[in-house]
Amino acid sequence: MAAIVNPDLDRCRSQATFDPLLLTYFIYDGPEKTKRRRFLQHLALKESKKVNDCQLSELSKEEQYEVALQKVTATYRRIFELGLQDPADISLYRNTFIEGHPFAIHVLAFLPAVQKLASEEQKAKWLPLIERFQMIGTYAQTELGHGTFVRGLETTATYDPKTREFIINSPTTTSAKFWPGGLGKTANFVVLMAKLITNGRDCGLQSFLVQIRDLETHQPLPGITVGDIGQKFGFGFIDNGFLILKDVRIPRDNMLMRYAQVLEDGTFVSAKNDRLLYGSMTLIRSHMASACGRALAMAATIATRYSAVRRQSEINAGAGEVQVLDFQTQQYRLFTQIASAYALLMAGEESSAVYRTVSSEVETGNLQNLPILHALSASLKAFSSWQMMFGIEQCRLACGGHGYSSASGLPKLYANEVSACTYEGENTVLCLQAARFLIKSYNAAEKGEQLPSLAGFLQAPKGEKSRLTENLELDQLIAAYEHRAARQVREANSRFLSHLNKGATATEAWNQSSQSLVEAVVTFSHAFVVRAFIEKVTSSVLEPSLSSVLIQLAQLYALHGITRNSGQFLKGGYMSDHQLEMVENKLYELLAALRPNAVALVDAFEFPDGVLDSALGRYDGNVYEELMEYAKRSKLNKTEVHPGFFKYQKPFVDSLKSQAVAQSRL
Ligand SMILES: CCCCCCCCCCCCCCCCCCCCCC(=O)SCCNC(=O)CCNC(=O)[C@H](O)C(C)(C)COP(=O)(O)OP(=O)(O)OC[C@H]1O[C@@H](n2cnc3c(N)ncnc32)[C@H](O)[C@@H]1OP(=O)(O)O
Ligand SMILES: Cc1cc2nc3c(=O)[nH]c(=O)nc-3n(C[C@H](O)[C@H](O)[C@H](O)COP(=O)(O)OP(=O)(O)OC[C@H]3O[C@@H](n4cnc5c(N)ncnc54)[C@H](O)[C@@H]3O)c2cc1C
Question: Where is FAD bound in this sequence (predicted)?
Fold first, then answer.
């Protein structure tokens, strides 16, 4: 029997001015893909329940690990049985079946690292085993003492030409590998980043395939000390681990030799470009805007549906309590996050497309656009994970007290997803990487050189004024963001030069201007996202009813950024006070205009309830019933009287009672 839908939520749905199904097609690339998506999600949820129906977030870390392992093995068993081949189908099926699992780094980093860094011969030998999970691996780069500064890694791989082996060592406490996902208990292989030493010479960082556990007994091999790193902020289902290597010998052939090689006599042949070694990091970074957009879309769905169901306080005295979604402050909080989710999803599509283009160029030996890909993937990874982090928290706060309950699904979403600000490169550090590209491009532009299109905005004439009017022209919104970015890059460059002129070395001057550089990179990414959002909406063939709502959403995204950073748009008189006031007024108008469409905008993401895993975000809006059920399931309710009552509480109360009696007798 179909569940009765909460009438407030039902009414919100009926108020929509567009057909959400058309928006779903727009998000997921047409009716065919949407149909397939629904089919796979339905199948995955049904089968997942059969394997184990418990909620991971209700379990201890050890239990989470075990259930996640049970589920991920069942997932892949089914993926093979179903014959799924398309990576998009596989990740959709897996991510619906299970929210997270210990094979994540095997799939996301170990496999791509071998694909990218191994020679053809090595790939032919290892990839079939890796793809069929006969080898399960992780990407072991970070050490206790170094994550960011990769050149500072201390693990050594010393070549012994007599035996044609590398001898791997962790020479110091800080050289222990630390953090790799799946290392603690799951992996039997690692792609290991280590300093290559051959013929007595340090040849810098290289990658090696190292077996760490026996394939049958799973015991660590001789010379290997390995384990889990313990409780974390989130990601309880992944066994991030540590690894210490002592005189571990691997054959010469286990160095991943696509780009650099060590010959049998120990001669080192260097790569055409050392940075190719960082390829799997770039791959993940390039796809992270989409992943962040998805996470924010989940949070926005939960908070928006709940805000349609939740009634509290009156706007007009005596007229009854209103849906909290009717408060302008709530609309501001939530609609700006819905807009951000869409913006990140579109920007993610764009950055994945850039990744595909540049990586196929790299495959043919053309490295010309590698710096562009690095700058874009690094800066967008940082920007989108920061926006997602801030956005999920806004959604959680927008749910009031119930947002603090695990039943809302929001605490675990935040705790898991916030790690994206750190893994694959700490955000600030990645911004500073992108800053190198922007500053170089800026100086090239000053010399009148042609710039790649990504940096083309730096060539815009200075001293322009904004021509944005009440019509909120989309080209003027892009122009405003690109003007702001160009100005921030120029200012950061001036700071850098002024420190140089005062006698600082280049690296000191860079450090003294680094906050300014990071801010410039944030404005650059923001401009990229605004452009990607607007271009995707305007270049797609859409029903007018849908197109007008998406344009409103893109305008809201852009206006929100202007009001939050108004100082930067006012600088140099680019925008006038009058324009800024107009922007604020228009933003408030857009909130009211989007109100009838809010629920449809999040419904269109089509997150199944089983994926949202939230009492507040249920499609049927039966929030209160589910919250009560959730409370009743609390483990503390298993007994009417907790044993702690007799162990601690009663003796304590009784002791005070007898003391009081004793005192009253004095
Ligand atoms: C459908 C398709 C599906 C596809 C699937 C796709 C996947 C989908 C993904 C979805 C995800 C959701 C699920 C998540 C689950 C959990 C996952 C958790 C995973 C966590 C894994 C990790 O966490 S794993 C460790 C990552 N650990 C770092 O991330 C270290 C940061 N640290 C550095 O990255 C370097 O250390 C740092 C700072 C650059 C300095 O390195 P350094 O000192 O050597 O370099 P310098 O600063 O001197 O720079 C020297 C020159 O190299 C240039 N350059 C530098 N990097 C470059 C590069 N990558 N490419 C090109 N060029 C590069 C630079 O631009 C300079 O160029 P120039 O000189 O011309 O300016
Ligand atoms: C959930 C999770 C999963 C992970 N999975 C893996 C994995 O599978 N494999 C793996 O190898 N690693 C993994 N890591 C490690 C991760 O990649 C690193 O933690 C990350 O790259 C940050 O490096 P760090 O820890 O050394 O931070 P640090 O660099 O020590 O950062 C501390 C502070 O110093 C600042 N800082 C550092 N250097 C600079 C600089 N040059 N300029 C300005 N500021 C600077 C940072 O901005 C930050 O504020 C994982 C981490 C997490 C949290």
Answer: 142, 181
User: 280-447+470-603, what's its fold?
Assistant: Butyryl-CoA Dehydrogenase, subunit A; domain 3 (1.20.140)
Domain limits of the chain?
10-105, 112-271, 280-447+470-603
Does residue 361 have an active-site annotation?
A: no
User: Is CATH 1.10.540.10 the right assignment for the domain spanning 10-105?
Assistant: yes
Going by C-alpha positions, the residue among 402, 352, 413, 415 that lies closest to residue 380 is 352
Alpha helices in 398-468, H assignment, sequence order: 400-404, 410-417, 427-446
Q: What pLDDT score does 638 carry?
A: 94
SS (H, E, C) 278-330: HHHHHHHHHHHHHHHHHHHHHHHHHHHHHHHHCEEEECCCCCCEEEHHHCHHH
DSSP string, 33-93: HHHHHHHHHHHHHHHHHHH----GGGS-HHHHHHHHHHHHHHHHHHHHHHT---HHHHHHH
Q: What CATH architecture does domain 112-271 belong to?
A: Beta Barrel (2.40)
The average pLDDT across 196-201 equals 97
Beta bridge partners of 197: 158, 202
Task: Find the 425 Cα to ligand 1 centroid distance in Å.
Answer: 6
Q: Determine the atom of ligand 2 nearest the C-alpha atom of 147.
A: 26
Mean pLDDT across the stretch 586-591? 98
Average pLDDT estimate for 58-85: 95
pLDDT in tens, 255-300: 999 999 999 999 999 998 888 989 889 999 999 999 999 999 999 9
**Among the listed residues 252, 248, 250, 231, the one whose alpha carbon sits nearest the alpha carbon of residue 240:** 231
Ligand 2 pocket mutation pick from 108, 136, 148 by most atoms within 8 angstroms of CB: 148
